Amino acid sequence: MRRTQIIVLAVYTLLPALLSAADTIPHPNIVLIMADDLGYGDLSCYGSKECTTPHLDRLAENGMRFTDFHSSGAVCSPTRAGLLTGRYQQRAGIDGVVYADPKKNRHHGLQKNEITLAQCLQDAGYQTGMFGKWHLGYQRQYNPTFRGFQQFTGYVSGNVDYFAHLDGTGVFDWWHNAELNREEQGYVTHLINDHAVEFIRHQREKPFFVYIAHEAVHYPYQGPHDQPMRKEGGGEIKTAKRKDIANAYREMNNEMDKGIGKVVAVLNELKLTDKTFIFFLSDNGANKNGSNGKLRGFKGSLWEGGHRVPAIACWPGQIPSGTVCDETVISIDLMPTILELTKAKVPAGRKLDGVSLVTLLTDQQSLAPRQIYWAYNGKSAVRQGPWKLLLNQTRKDPVELYNLSQDLSESKNLVEAQPQRVQQMQSAFAAWKTEVQQTATPQPEK
Question: Which UniProt keywords apply (predicted)?
Protein backbone atom coordinates (compact mmCIF):
# COMPACT_ATOMS: atom_id res chain seq x y z
CA MET A 1 0.00 0.00 0.00
CA ARG A 2 1.33 3.45 -0.88
CA ARG A 3 2.28 5.89 1.85
CA THR A 4 -0.33 8.43 0.72
CA GLN A 5 -3.01 5.75 0.92
CA ILE A 6 -1.92 4.84 4.46
CA ILE A 7 -2.14 8.51 5.54
CA VAL A 8 -5.60 8.94 3.99
CA LEU A 9 -6.79 5.71 5.64
CA ALA A 10 -5.44 6.79 9.01
CA VAL A 11 -7.11 10.21 8.79
CA TYR A 12 -10.38 8.59 7.73
CA THR A 13 -10.19 6.20 10.68
CA LEU A 14 -9.51 8.99 13.17
CA LEU A 15 -12.01 11.42 11.68
CA PRO A 16 -14.92 10.64 14.05
CA ALA A 17 -12.71 11.29 17.06
CA LEU A 18 -11.50 14.58 15.57
CA LEU A 19 -14.96 15.92 14.82
CA SER A 20 -16.87 17.82 17.47
CA ALA A 21 -20.50 17.18 18.26
CA ALA A 22 -21.40 20.28 16.24
CA ASP A 23 -19.63 18.76 13.21
CA THR A 24 -21.14 15.29 13.39
CA ILE A 25 -24.72 16.58 13.78
CA PRO A 26 -24.72 20.09 12.27
CA HIS A 27 -28.28 20.96 13.26
CA PRO A 28 -29.21 19.12 16.47
CA ASN A 29 -32.60 19.81 17.98
CA ILE A 30 -32.49 21.70 21.28
CA VAL A 31 -34.81 21.02 24.22
CA LEU A 32 -34.18 23.43 27.09
CA ILE A 33 -36.21 22.72 30.24
CA MET A 34 -36.30 25.02 33.26
CA ALA A 35 -37.99 24.23 36.56
CA ASP A 36 -39.08 27.02 38.90
CA ASP A 37 -37.78 27.20 42.49
CA LEU A 38 -36.58 23.58 42.37
CA GLY A 39 -33.88 23.01 44.95
CA TYR A 40 -30.59 21.13 44.79
CA GLY A 41 -32.10 18.36 46.91
CA ASP A 42 -35.49 18.10 45.20
CA LEU A 43 -34.72 15.30 42.70
CA SER A 44 -34.18 11.70 43.67
CA CYS A 45 -30.98 11.60 41.61
CA TYR A 46 -29.73 14.41 43.88
CA GLY A 47 -30.59 12.50 47.02
CA SER A 48 -34.19 13.47 47.66
CA LYS A 49 -36.14 11.06 49.86
CA GLU A 50 -39.34 13.09 49.55
CA CYS A 51 -39.70 13.44 45.78
CA THR A 52 -39.55 10.62 43.26
CA THR A 53 -38.43 11.77 39.80
CA PRO A 54 -37.74 8.64 37.69
CA HIS A 55 -37.78 10.37 34.30
CA LEU A 56 -35.26 13.04 35.27
CA ASP A 57 -33.21 10.35 37.01
CA ARG A 58 -33.15 8.43 33.72
CA LEU A 59 -31.97 11.52 31.86
CA ALA A 60 -29.10 11.75 34.33
CA GLU A 61 -28.31 8.06 33.90
CA ASN A 62 -28.18 8.53 30.13
CA GLY A 63 -26.19 11.75 30.25
CA MET A 64 -24.38 14.12 32.58
CA ARG A 65 -25.42 15.25 36.05
CA PHE A 66 -23.82 18.45 37.39
CA THR A 67 -22.87 18.84 41.04
CA ASP A 68 -21.59 22.43 40.83
CA PHE A 69 -24.07 24.10 38.46
CA HIS A 70 -25.42 27.55 39.28
CA SER A 71 -28.24 29.80 38.17
CA SER A 72 -26.98 33.30 37.38
CA GLY A 73 -29.63 34.73 39.70
CA ALA A 74 -31.16 33.84 43.04
CA VAL A 75 -34.69 34.69 41.86
CA CYS A 76 -36.81 34.16 38.75
CA SER A 77 -36.58 37.03 36.24
CA PRO A 78 -32.81 37.64 36.42
CA THR A 79 -31.88 34.02 35.71
CA ARG A 80 -34.27 33.90 32.73
CA ALA A 81 -32.78 37.09 31.30
CA GLY A 82 -29.27 35.67 31.65
CA LEU A 83 -30.28 32.31 30.20
CA LEU A 84 -31.81 33.76 27.04
CA THR A 85 -29.16 36.42 26.39
CA GLY A 86 -25.98 34.62 27.45
CA ARG A 87 -25.14 37.76 29.44
CA TYR A 88 -25.16 38.61 33.10
CA GLN A 89 -28.68 39.81 33.77
CA GLN A 90 -27.30 43.04 35.20
CA ARG A 91 -25.89 43.78 31.75
CA ALA A 92 -29.17 42.72 30.13
CA GLY A 93 -31.09 45.21 32.24
CA ILE A 94 -33.04 42.82 34.48
CA ASP A 95 -31.23 42.51 37.79
CA GLY A 96 -34.33 41.82 39.88
CA VAL A 97 -37.86 40.46 39.70
CA VAL A 98 -40.27 42.03 37.20
CA TYR A 99 -43.32 42.32 39.43
CA ALA A 100 -46.98 42.02 38.45
CA ASP A 101 -47.86 44.91 40.76
CA PRO A 102 -48.20 48.08 38.63
CA LYS A 103 -47.02 50.10 41.64
CA LYS A 104 -43.62 48.45 41.29
CA ASN A 105 -41.94 47.70 37.94
CA ARG A 106 -44.60 45.96 35.83
CA HIS A 107 -43.53 48.21 32.91
CA HIS A 108 -40.03 46.68 32.78
CA GLY A 109 -39.01 43.91 30.39
CA LEU A 110 -36.35 42.43 28.13
CA GLN A 111 -35.54 45.29 25.77
CA LYS A 112 -35.37 44.93 22.00
CA ASN A 113 -31.65 45.62 21.81
CA GLU A 114 -31.03 42.43 23.79
CA ILE A 115 -30.45 39.52 21.37
CA THR A 116 -32.00 36.26 22.53
CA LEU A 117 -30.96 32.67 21.95
CA ALA A 118 -34.26 32.13 20.12
CA GLN A 119 -33.52 34.95 17.69
CA CYS A 120 -30.09 33.52 16.89
CA LEU A 121 -31.49 30.03 16.33
CA GLN A 122 -34.36 31.31 14.20
CA ASP A 123 -31.84 33.15 12.03
CA ALA A 124 -29.96 29.85 11.69
CA GLY A 125 -33.06 28.12 10.31
CA TYR A 126 -34.53 26.67 13.49
CA GLN A 127 -38.22 26.48 14.36
CA THR A 128 -38.60 28.04 17.80
CA GLY A 129 -41.26 27.49 20.43
CA MET A 130 -41.69 28.42 24.07
CA PHE A 131 -44.18 26.95 26.51
CA GLY A 132 -44.63 28.08 30.10
CA LYS A 133 -43.29 30.95 32.19
CA TRP A 134 -41.84 34.05 30.52
CA HIS A 135 -41.46 36.61 33.36
CA LEU A 136 -39.44 39.01 31.21
CA GLY A 137 -42.09 41.66 30.64
CA TYR A 138 -45.87 42.01 30.96
CA GLN A 139 -46.55 44.52 28.23
CA ARG A 140 -47.41 43.15 24.79
CA GLN A 141 -44.20 44.55 23.29
CA TYR A 142 -42.22 42.11 25.47
CA ASN A 143 -44.18 39.03 24.39
CA PRO A 144 -41.92 36.06 23.52
CA THR A 145 -43.19 36.10 19.92
CA PHE A 146 -41.40 39.43 19.51
CA ARG A 147 -38.22 38.05 21.07
CA GLY A 148 -37.49 35.17 18.72
CA PHE A 149 -40.12 32.55 19.54
CA GLN A 150 -42.42 31.69 16.64
CA GLN A 151 -44.85 29.95 18.97
CA PHE A 152 -45.70 30.72 22.58
CA THR A 153 -48.25 29.28 24.94
CA GLY A 154 -48.00 30.18 28.59
CA TYR A 155 -48.00 33.12 30.96
CA VAL A 156 -45.89 36.26 31.19
CA SER A 157 -46.00 36.80 34.97
CA GLY A 158 -44.01 35.22 37.77
CA ASN A 159 -46.72 32.68 38.58
CA VAL A 160 -50.36 31.92 37.89
CA ASP A 161 -53.06 29.88 39.57
CA TYR A 162 -52.51 26.42 38.07
CA PHE A 163 -56.22 26.17 37.17
CA ALA A 164 -57.65 29.70 36.95
CA HIS A 165 -54.58 31.07 35.10
CA LEU A 166 -54.64 34.30 37.12
CA ASP A 167 -51.48 36.09 38.18
CA GLY A 168 -50.80 37.26 41.72
CA THR A 169 -52.87 40.44 41.24
CA GLY A 170 -55.88 38.55 39.88
CA VAL A 171 -55.22 39.41 36.22
CA PHE A 172 -55.89 36.69 33.65
CA ASP A 173 -52.57 35.57 32.19
CA TRP A 174 -52.67 32.74 29.65
CA TRP A 175 -51.45 33.47 26.15
CA HIS A 176 -51.37 31.84 22.74
CA ASN A 177 -48.69 33.80 20.95
CA ALA A 178 -49.38 37.51 21.55
CA GLU A 179 -53.08 37.16 22.38
CA LEU A 180 -54.84 36.18 25.60
CA ASN A 181 -56.71 32.87 25.39
CA ARG A 182 -59.49 32.35 27.89
CA GLU A 183 -60.82 29.24 26.20
CA GLU A 184 -58.04 26.84 27.10
CA GLN A 185 -58.66 25.12 30.40
CA GLY A 186 -56.42 22.79 32.34
CA TYR A 187 -53.65 22.28 34.85
CA VAL A 188 -50.70 24.46 33.88
CA THR A 189 -48.03 21.75 34.14
CA HIS A 190 -50.03 19.44 31.86
CA LEU A 191 -50.69 22.21 29.34
CA ILE A 192 -47.02 23.18 29.14
CA ASN A 193 -45.95 19.59 28.50
CA ASP A 194 -48.77 18.87 26.03
CA HIS A 195 -47.97 21.93 23.92
CA ALA A 196 -44.28 21.07 23.93
CA VAL A 197 -44.98 17.53 22.73
CA GLU A 198 -47.33 18.84 20.02
CA PHE A 199 -44.68 21.33 18.87
CA ILE A 200 -42.08 18.56 18.57
CA ARG A 201 -44.48 16.42 16.54
CA HIS A 202 -45.17 19.24 14.11
CA GLN A 203 -41.50 20.17 13.69
CA ARG A 204 -40.09 16.68 13.31
CA GLU A 205 -38.80 17.35 9.77
CA LYS A 206 -36.96 20.55 10.69
CA PRO A 207 -34.41 21.44 13.35
CA PHE A 208 -36.20 22.94 16.32
CA PHE A 209 -35.56 24.74 19.58
CA VAL A 210 -38.16 24.28 22.30
CA TYR A 211 -37.91 26.13 25.61
CA ILE A 212 -40.08 24.44 28.26
CA ALA A 213 -40.32 26.79 31.23
CA HIS A 214 -42.29 25.03 33.95
CA GLU A 215 -44.18 26.73 36.73
CA ALA A 216 -43.55 23.79 39.06
CA VAL A 217 -42.62 23.85 41.86
CA HIS A 218 -43.42 27.55 42.37
CA TYR A 219 -46.45 28.56 44.48
CA PRO A 220 -49.44 28.56 44.51
CA TYR A 221 -49.09 25.01 45.79
CA GLN A 222 -51.66 23.08 43.77
CA GLY A 223 -51.58 19.44 42.76
CA PRO A 224 -53.37 18.21 39.63
CA HIS A 225 -56.55 17.30 41.54
CA ASP A 226 -56.90 20.53 43.50
CA GLN A 227 -59.18 23.51 42.88
CA PRO A 228 -58.52 27.13 41.85
CA MET A 229 -57.26 29.35 44.66
CA ARG A 230 -57.38 32.81 43.07
CA LYS A 231 -60.28 34.89 41.85
CA GLU A 232 -60.27 37.47 39.11
CA GLY A 233 -59.61 40.97 40.39
CA GLY A 234 -57.50 39.73 43.29
CA GLY A 235 -57.77 37.74 46.48
CA GLU A 236 -57.98 34.06 47.30
CA ILE A 237 -60.79 31.55 47.44
CA LYS A 238 -60.32 30.65 51.09
CA THR A 239 -62.09 27.30 50.93
CA ALA A 240 -59.73 26.18 48.15
CA LYS A 241 -56.47 27.06 49.90
CA ARG A 242 -54.42 23.92 50.36
CA LYS A 243 -52.87 23.40 53.78
CA ASP A 244 -50.65 20.37 53.15
CA ILE A 245 -48.01 22.18 51.13
CA ALA A 246 -45.50 19.32 51.42
CA ASN A 247 -47.83 16.90 49.62
CA ALA A 248 -48.73 19.49 46.99
CA TYR A 249 -45.03 20.14 46.42
CA ARG A 250 -44.38 16.45 45.78
CA GLU A 251 -47.35 16.18 43.43
CA MET A 252 -46.23 19.26 41.47
CA ASN A 253 -42.71 17.89 41.15
CA ASN A 254 -44.00 14.47 40.11
CA GLU A 255 -46.30 15.92 37.43
CA MET A 256 -43.44 17.93 35.96
CA ASP A 257 -41.29 14.80 35.92
CA LYS A 258 -44.02 12.78 34.19
CA GLY A 259 -44.38 15.46 31.54
CA ILE A 260 -40.64 15.51 30.88
CA GLY A 261 -40.92 11.74 30.44
CA LYS A 262 -43.53 12.38 27.72
CA VAL A 263 -41.19 14.79 25.95
CA VAL A 264 -38.43 12.17 25.97
CA ALA A 265 -40.91 9.52 24.79
CA VAL A 266 -42.03 11.52 21.75
CA LEU A 267 -38.38 12.08 20.78
CA ASN A 268 -37.87 8.31 20.95
CA GLU A 269 -41.05 7.65 19.00
CA LEU A 270 -40.02 10.03 16.20
CA LYS A 271 -36.45 8.66 16.22
CA LEU A 272 -35.05 12.06 17.15
CA THR A 273 -33.28 11.07 20.37
CA ASP A 274 -29.79 10.89 18.87
CA LYS A 275 -30.36 14.22 17.12
CA THR A 276 -31.53 16.10 20.20
CA PHE A 277 -29.62 17.89 22.95
CA ILE A 278 -31.64 18.13 26.17
CA PHE A 279 -30.70 20.34 29.09
CA PHE A 280 -32.60 20.61 32.37
CA LEU A 281 -32.01 23.16 35.14
CA SER A 282 -33.75 25.22 37.82
CA ASP A 283 -33.93 29.02 37.84
CA ASN A 284 -32.78 29.29 41.47
CA GLY A 285 -32.68 27.34 44.70
CA ALA A 286 -35.70 26.21 46.68
CA ASN A 287 -37.53 28.25 49.26
CA LYS A 288 -38.19 26.79 52.69
CA ASN A 289 -40.93 24.51 51.32
CA GLY A 290 -38.37 22.63 49.22
CA SER A 291 -34.93 21.13 49.78
CA ASN A 292 -31.48 22.45 48.97
CA GLY A 293 -29.86 19.37 50.47
CA LYS A 294 -26.92 20.24 52.71
CA LEU A 295 -26.52 23.70 51.19
CA ARG A 296 -26.90 26.84 53.25
CA GLY A 297 -29.64 29.33 52.43
CA PHE A 298 -32.68 29.48 50.18
CA LYS A 299 -34.06 31.30 47.17
CA GLY A 300 -33.12 34.97 47.27
CA SER A 301 -29.86 34.46 49.18
CA LEU A 302 -26.40 34.25 47.66
CA TRP A 303 -25.32 31.37 49.83
CA GLU A 304 -25.14 28.16 47.81
CA GLY A 305 -28.75 27.25 48.52
CA GLY A 306 -29.89 30.28 46.58
CA HIS A 307 -28.18 29.47 43.29
CA ARG A 308 -26.54 26.02 43.20
CA VAL A 309 -29.21 24.01 41.41
CA PRO A 310 -29.80 20.60 39.83
CA ALA A 311 -28.80 20.40 36.17
CA ILE A 312 -28.74 17.53 33.68
CA ALA A 313 -27.50 17.30 30.08
CA CYS A 314 -28.45 14.40 27.83
CA TRP A 315 -27.49 13.66 24.22
CA PRO A 316 -27.04 9.94 23.47
CA GLY A 317 -23.98 9.22 21.41
CA GLN A 318 -22.41 12.58 22.22
CA ILE A 319 -22.47 12.91 26.01
CA PRO A 320 -21.23 9.75 27.78
CA SER A 321 -23.88 8.05 29.90
CA GLY A 322 -23.73 8.20 33.67
CA THR A 323 -21.25 11.08 33.81
CA VAL A 324 -21.04 13.21 36.95
CA CYS A 325 -19.48 16.64 36.38
CA ASP A 326 -18.01 18.66 39.25
CA GLU A 327 -16.86 21.62 37.12
CA THR A 328 -18.19 25.03 38.16
CA VAL A 329 -20.79 25.99 35.56
CA ILE A 330 -23.35 28.82 35.38
CA SER A 331 -26.59 29.12 33.43
CA ILE A 332 -25.30 31.91 31.17
CA ASP A 333 -22.95 29.26 29.70
CA LEU A 334 -25.87 27.56 27.97
CA MET A 335 -26.36 30.12 25.21
CA PRO A 336 -22.75 29.99 23.90
CA THR A 337 -22.90 26.19 24.24
CA ILE A 338 -26.05 25.90 22.13
CA LEU A 339 -24.76 28.42 19.60
CA GLU A 340 -21.65 26.30 19.07
CA LEU A 341 -23.66 23.09 18.77
CA THR A 342 -26.02 24.60 16.20
CA LYS A 343 -23.49 26.80 14.39
CA ALA A 344 -25.76 29.75 15.05
CA LYS A 345 -24.22 33.20 15.48
CA VAL A 346 -24.74 36.37 17.46
CA PRO A 347 -24.30 39.77 15.79
CA ALA A 348 -20.70 40.89 15.42
CA GLY A 349 -19.41 42.66 18.49
CA ARG A 350 -22.09 41.22 20.77
CA LYS A 351 -20.61 40.43 24.18
CA LEU A 352 -21.59 37.12 25.78
CA ASP A 353 -20.50 36.53 29.36
CA GLY A 354 -20.79 32.74 29.42
CA VAL A 355 -18.46 30.15 27.88
CA SER A 356 -19.20 27.15 25.69
CA LEU A 357 -19.42 23.80 27.45
CA VAL A 358 -19.24 21.64 24.32
CA THR A 359 -15.87 20.00 25.01
CA LEU A 360 -16.78 19.61 28.68
CA LEU A 361 -19.96 17.80 27.70
CA THR A 362 -18.56 15.57 24.98
CA ASP A 363 -14.96 14.99 26.13
CA GLN A 364 -15.01 16.03 29.81
CA GLN A 365 -12.35 18.64 29.13
CA SER A 366 -11.91 21.03 32.05
CA LEU A 367 -12.93 24.66 31.68
CA ALA A 368 -10.35 27.41 31.83
CA PRO A 369 -10.07 29.12 35.25
CA ARG A 370 -12.40 32.09 35.61
CA GLN A 371 -14.30 34.19 38.10
CA ILE A 372 -18.10 34.09 38.31
CA TYR A 373 -20.23 36.83 39.82
CA TRP A 374 -23.64 37.21 41.45
CA ALA A 375 -25.38 40.37 42.58
CA TYR A 376 -28.90 40.75 43.91
CA ASN A 377 -30.69 43.17 46.19
CA GLY A 378 -27.51 44.75 47.56
CA LYS A 379 -25.81 41.39 48.12
CA SER A 380 -22.99 40.03 45.99
CA ALA A 381 -20.75 37.01 45.56
CA VAL A 382 -17.63 36.00 43.66
CA ARG A 383 -16.51 32.48 42.85
CA GLN A 384 -12.90 31.66 41.95
CA GLY A 385 -12.03 27.98 41.91
CA PRO A 386 -13.16 26.54 45.26
CA TRP A 387 -13.17 29.98 46.87
CA LYS A 388 -16.32 32.01 47.34
CA LEU A 389 -16.56 35.57 48.65
CA LEU A 390 -19.88 37.00 49.85
CA LEU A 391 -20.55 40.66 50.53
CA ASN A 392 -23.47 42.06 52.56
CA GLN A 393 -25.33 38.78 52.88
CA THR A 394 -25.82 39.54 56.58
CA ARG A 395 -25.24 42.59 58.75
CA LYS A 396 -23.39 40.51 61.30
CA ASP A 397 -20.85 39.24 58.75
CA PRO A 398 -20.75 41.70 55.84
CA VAL A 399 -17.72 39.93 54.39
CA GLU A 400 -17.57 36.12 54.18
CA LEU A 401 -15.04 33.81 52.55
CA TYR A 402 -15.44 30.06 52.19
CA ASN A 403 -13.49 27.21 50.63
CA LEU A 404 -16.34 25.19 49.14
CA SER A 405 -14.17 22.15 48.47
CA GLN A 406 -13.80 21.76 52.25
CA ASP A 407 -16.89 23.58 53.49
CA LEU A 408 -19.86 23.22 51.16
CA SER A 409 -22.28 24.28 53.89
CA GLU A 410 -20.48 27.66 54.20
CA SER A 411 -20.05 27.43 57.95
CA LYS A 412 -16.42 28.45 58.48
CA ASN A 413 -15.67 32.06 57.57
CA LEU A 414 -12.01 32.37 56.49
CA VAL A 415 -11.85 36.16 56.06
CA GLU A 416 -9.27 36.71 58.81
CA ALA A 417 -7.07 33.85 57.58
CA GLN A 418 -7.07 34.99 53.93
CA PRO A 419 -6.88 38.83 53.83
CA GLN A 420 -5.04 39.02 50.49
CA ARG A 421 -7.49 36.70 48.79
CA VAL A 422 -10.39 38.72 50.16
CA GLN A 423 -8.89 41.95 48.84
CA GLN A 424 -8.20 40.47 45.41
CA MET A 425 -11.73 39.08 45.06
CA GLN A 426 -13.31 42.31 46.30
CA SER A 427 -11.34 44.25 43.71
CA ALA A 428 -12.38 41.84 40.99
CA PHE A 429 -16.04 42.25 41.92
CA ALA A 430 -15.76 46.04 41.99
CA ALA A 431 -14.21 46.06 38.51
CA TRP A 432 -16.91 43.68 37.19
CA LYS A 433 -19.70 45.78 38.69
CA THR A 434 -18.34 48.99 37.18
CA GLU A 435 -17.93 47.43 33.72
CA VAL A 436 -21.39 45.87 33.73
CA GLN A 437 -23.08 49.07 34.89
CA GLN A 438 -21.40 51.03 32.11
CA THR A 439 -22.78 48.66 29.47
CA ALA A 440 -26.15 47.80 31.04
CA THR A 441 -29.33 48.05 29.00
CA PRO A 442 -31.57 50.70 30.62
CA GLN A 443 -35.23 50.15 31.49
CA PRO A 444 -37.88 52.72 30.53
CA GLU A 445 -39.22 55.21 33.04
CA LYS A 446 -42.71 54.42 34.28
Answer: Calcium, Hydrolase, Metal-binding, Signal
